[in-house]
UniProtKB/TrEMBL annotation:
Thiamine phosphate synthase/TenI domain ranges (all copies): 7-199
Lineage, highest ranks first: Eukaryota, Fungi, Dikarya, Ascomycota, Pezizomycotina
Gene source species: Penicillium frequentans
Function, as annotated: Condenses 4-methyl-5-(beta-hydroxyethyl)thiazole monophosphate (THZ-P) and 2-methyl-4-amino-5-hydroxymethyl pyrimidine pyrophosphate (HMP-PP) to form thiamine monophosphate (TMP).
Keywords: ATP-binding, Kinase, Magnesium, Metal-binding, Nucleotide-binding, Thiamine biosynthesis, Transferase
Keyword Kinase listed: yes
Pfam family membership, one: TMP-TENI
Enzymatic reactions: 4-methyl-5-(2-phosphooxyethyl)-thiazole + 4-amino-2-methyl-5-(diphosphooxymethyl)pyrimidine + H(+) = thiamine phosphate + diphosphate; 5-(2-hydroxyethyl)-4-methylthiazole + ATP = 4-methyl-5-(2-phosphooxyethyl)-thiazole + ADP + H(+); 2-[(2R,5Z)-2-carboxy-4-methylthiazol-5(2H)-ylidene]ethyl phosphate + 4-amino-2-methyl-5-(diphosphooxymethyl)pyrimidine + 2 H(+) = thiamine phosphate + CO2 + diphosphate; 2-(2-carboxy-4-methylthiazol-5-yl)ethyl phosphate + 4-amino-2-methyl-5-(diphosphooxymethyl)pyrimidine + 2 H(+) = thiamine phosphate + CO2 + diphosphate
Family the entry assigns: In the N-terminal section; belongs to the thiamine-phosphate synthase family.
Keyword Glycoprotein assigned: no
InterPro entries, alphabetized: Aldolase_TIM, Hyethyz_kinase, Ribokinase-like, ThiamineP_synth_sf, ThiamineP_synth_TenI, TMP_synthase
Name of the molecule in the record: Thiamine phosphate synthase/TenI domain-containing protein
Pathway given in the UniProt record: Cofactor biosynthesis; thiamine diphosphate biosynthesis; thiamine phosphate from 4-amino-2-methyl-5-diphosphomethylpyrimidine and 4-methyl-5-(2-phosphoethyl)-thiazole: step 1/1; Cofactor biosynthesis; thiamine diphosphate biosynthesis; 4-methyl-5-(2-phosphoethyl)-thiazole from 5-(2-hydroxyethyl)-4-methylthiazole: step 1/1
């Protein structure tokens, strides 16, 4: 019978993690909470002590019908008669372990590259541990931190095989759903997550394991997995927009803004104009209460300070844990070394449902070092329209989220579909800080939700710019707020004329 790898506990007996408690008690508590496999990992004890502890652990795991595997030591596994072993790249070879262990013994192999994973598949391993997902103090001598993108590439390369897969390294309650969701390749996902400190070092290992089990079971299905019928056709999507705008107006959602002070006032007024409820809070600790209102979080890096990043991280963790939408606006991402580092730190620490930026910013998030922004402007474009569309699509595909690359033409992608939106007005580009409030709405097709927000904004901008009293960005702002309000009022009355014949959306085939 295949092993249930969904919640894989790896033990650690070091004082910093076990904190002087009895290992068997901690493991039994974790089993009560829902752990499905246990690996006894002890790098320090002598062989005699390893065997004696493994025997005690085996008595516990057998009571819960959960397999016990031994890290590195085939001899200890044989002496105790446990269900299997976990072997690293520098341990006994798979072939030899297979010869020595009983036929039905479980053998897992550590992998951190496509080559290692392919070899484990060819050898016939039962599962692979894929890591290191995120840097972790539990094990500092890891080969490479590969994140969700590296894990996805490995899963993709072995997607024809039925080998089991778990991710390991730095996984906790705040990131577990993202790890499972974002690592998924089109044909193969992770079967589970391997955890050390977030369970063994927890004050209450049972409660911690229970929380993991619930999060794993309820890992949400996002945009790529469910769309409205015919959702590749712009006209099908645009036809849905009026009712989505109406729903937004009725929902009166809360938006938590961690935003650049330059546009703070404007963003608050925009939110109010379209019927949302804005709160400006750069204070990360406040997020654990604010996220309970089930609104969306917007991180706008416009006026970054040394205190911003830890505050962003706290807020992202709070919203990710609840699965509430988080939007990243990486303003000026390619302008300075500090901003470049901030982007990579945020990208490795949290899940963003939507990343919105100009070409320079999106290229920086993608990892292109060739870009140098001047201030927050994108700078002259060096990409063709189809390269821009491909960049938005590839980033969304890698991050398994939505990407909106703004410019004269906006490109919106969910990693599969790419739509070009040619509405808007140049004045809108001079008034940064557009909010995408629509992600919080209960629509399974998040791309459609964001497209609705985008069209509402851009059509309001066109209407505002057409007023004869609007002569530049200064007079544009109040007119724009009025036009947003006018659309909101019309939508609330069921009047969809604001969008009739106005949307300039086409699908880009790459
Ligand atoms: C499930 C799982 N995956 C990876 C590892 C790491 O094993 P290894 O490379 O042998 O490193 P050590 O654990 O020996 O430090 C693991 N233990 N479990
Ligand atoms: C044992 C181990 N192996 C890793 C690898 O990358 O192969 S990372 C790791 C430790 C994981 O600990 P925690 O869950 O506390 O971050």
């Amino acid at each position: 019978m295949p092993v249930d790898l969904s919640l894989y506990l790896v033990t650690d007996s070091t004082p910093a993690i076990l904190k002087g408690r009895d290992l068997c008690t901690v493991v039994e508590d974790a089993l009560k909470g829902g752990v499905t496999v246990v690996q006894y990992r002890d790098k320090k004890s002598d062989t005699g002590d390893l065997i004696s502890t493994a025997k005690k652990l085996h008595q516990v795991t057998q009571r819960y019908g959960v397999p016990l595997l031994i890290n590195d030591r085939v001899d200890v596994a044989l002496a105790v008669g446990v269900e299997g072993v976990h072997l690293g790249q520098d341990d006994m070879t798979f072939e030899l372990a297979k010869k020595l262990l009983p036929k039905d013994a479980i053998i897992g192999i550590s992998t951190s590259s496509i080559e290692e994973a392919r070899k484990a598949v060819a050898d016939g391993a039962d599962y692979i541990g894929i890591g290191t997902m995120f840097a972790t103090p539990t094990k500092t001598n890891t080969k490479s931190v590969i994140g969700t993108a590296g894990t996805q590439a490995i899963l993709d390369a072995i997607s024809d095989s039925s080998i089991g897969t778990v991710s390991i390294g730095g996984i906790n309650h705040a990131n577990v759903q993202r790890v499972l969701y974002q690592s998924k390749s089109p044909k193969k996902g992770l079967d589970g997550v391997a955890i050390v400190s977030a369970i063994v070092a927890a004050d209450d290992p049972k409660a911690s394991a229970e929380e993991f089990a619930n999060l794993i079971k309820s890992t949400p299905v996002f945009a790529l997995d469910s769309k409205v019928a015919g959702a590749n056709k712009p006209e099908t999507l645009v036809a849905e927009v009026p009712q989505i705008v109406r729903k937004l107006v009725e929902a009166h959602p809360l938006v938590h803004n961690m935003i650049n002070f330059v546009v703070s006032n404007f963003v608050a007024n925009v939110a109010l104009s379209i019927g949302a409820s804005p709160i400006m809070s750069p204070y990360g600790d406040e997020a654990k209460d604010l996220c309970k209102f089930n609104g969306a979080l917007l991180i706008n890096m416009g006026t970054l300070t040394s205190e911003s990043i830890p505050n962003y991280e706290k807020a992202i963790k709070a919203y990710n844990t609840r699965g509430n939408p988080v939007v990243l606006d990486p303003v000026g991402a390619a302008a300075t070394e500090i901003r470049r580092n901030a982007v990579s730190r945020l990208m490795s620490g949290g899940y963003f449902d939507l990343i919105k930026g100009n070409e320079g910013e999106i290229r920086q998030v993608w990892g292109s070092n060739a870009v140098q922004q001047r201030g927050v402007d994108s700078g002259p474009s060096t990409l063709t329209d189809s390269q821009k569309a491909a960049l938005a699509r590839d980033l969304a595909r890698r991050e398994r989220n939505l990407v909106l690359m703004t410019g004269a033409i906006d490109y919106l992608s969910d990693g599969e579909r790419v739509f070009a939106v040619e509405n808007g007005h140049p004045y809108l580009g001079q008034v940064t800080g557009h909010l995408r409030l629509f992600l919080g709405l209960p629509y399974s097709d998040k791309l459609l939700a964001v497209l609705s927000g985008l069209l509402m904004y851009e059509i309001a901008a066109e209407n505002a710019a057409a007023k004869d009293y609007v002569r530049g960005p200064g007079s544009f702002v109040p007119a724009f707020l009025d036009e947003l309000y006018a659309i909101r009022t019309a939508a609330a009355k069921g009047d969809d004329s604001w969008i009739a014949g106005r949307a300039k959306v086409h699908e880009v085939k790459i």
